[in-house]
């Protein structure tokens, strides 16, 4: 995923809202990882591939990440992965049918 505009982030949040038991908040890197149920290395990988951040951290600066945006971005990423896997499975099935 590439860097998203504010409008694209808001669209993702509408499409993939936070669960009812979670309130939106501005969090640091560790708290966002905890809220998403992922490790810090996974969070760092997500940030490298496009997870939106309000304020980028590093070199002594703290990350600031909106939970609703991070949640929606991750849900979209997981949906893309599931769709990609489904297309691969369909392609393999089609190839298997052609070989018979």
Give the count of structural domains.
1
What summary fits the major beta sheet? Answer: 2 strands, antiparallel
Question: What is the number of helices?
Answer: 4
- Principal-axes geometry comes out as elongated
Percent helix: 55-70%
Radius of gyration: 17 Å
Lateral arrangement of strands in the main beta sheet: 1-2
Distance between the termini: 38 Å
Summarize model confidence as the mean pLDDT: 89
Order of helix and strand elements from N to C terminus: HEHHEH
Structural class: mainly alpha
Let me know the number of strands: 2
Low-confidence stretches: none
Strand content: under 5%
Protein name: DNA-binding protein
Region (Disordered): 81-100
Q: Explain this structure to me?
A:
The chain has 100 residues and is mainly alpha-helical. The protein has one domain (6-99). It is built from four helices and two strands. The chain has helices at 6-15, 29-36, 40-49, 67-99; strands at 26-27, 65-66. It has a two-stranded antiparallel sheet. α1 (6-15) packs across α4. The longest helix is centred in the last third of the chain and has 33 residues, at 67-99. The protein is elongated and about 60 Å long. 18% of the residues are buried. The mean pLDDT is 89.
Summarize the structure in short.
The chain has 100 residues and is mainly alpha-helical. It contains four helices and two strands, in the order H-E-H-H-E-H. Helices cover 61% and strands 4% of the residues.
Which key features would you list for this structure?
mainly alpha, single chain, elongated, two-stranded antiparallel ribbon
